[in-house]
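Thread title: Can someone regenerate the structure for this chain?

I was given the following input by a collaborator and told the matching structure tokens would be attached. They weren't. Posting the sequence so someone can regenerate them.
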Amino acid sequence: MAWALAVIVLLAAGVPAAAWSYTRLQPPPPPGRLGTGYDRIDRWLLRHHGLPPVERERVRAAVFQGRQVGDPVLEPAAHDLAAKVLARQFRALRRSAVLRWVNVTMAAGFAAVGIGLLIAGTHAGIRALGALGLLDSAMLTFVSVSSARQSQRIHRNAVTAMKLNHDRCS
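Best answer:
Regenerated them for you:
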């Protein structure tokens, strides 16, 4: 029974961690004819600045990595994009307050159920469910924290890109 519990815990923790690690190591896809994703940001850059896909990718990368665009022609676009990102005008970059509270509530609920099952459970199966409840709580907490850190990183990089691209833009 202990082996089965160990395999379940290993799979429950190992598979998501391995998938996350694998996706973090992959290089970003090269821009296609319309760009990488052709989302609202691409459409906005195309509409307001008339940039082709490769230049949209350069502007986007500069803003989200917090650096200066090498081409002076692209600096106004990078400055404008950083300003829009800082104003939170792109829905894809905003985290919903409802989603944040749902994650926090679910993490707390899973933790409470997991601790309760571990304390009150006398059978190994119930203790395994308690351990999985704690594992689920940890995963939800990890997702919430990493999402919050990503939002902070995007904000910090956009501020840096806006300053760097504004100096030569004006």
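Residues 33-169 form one domain.
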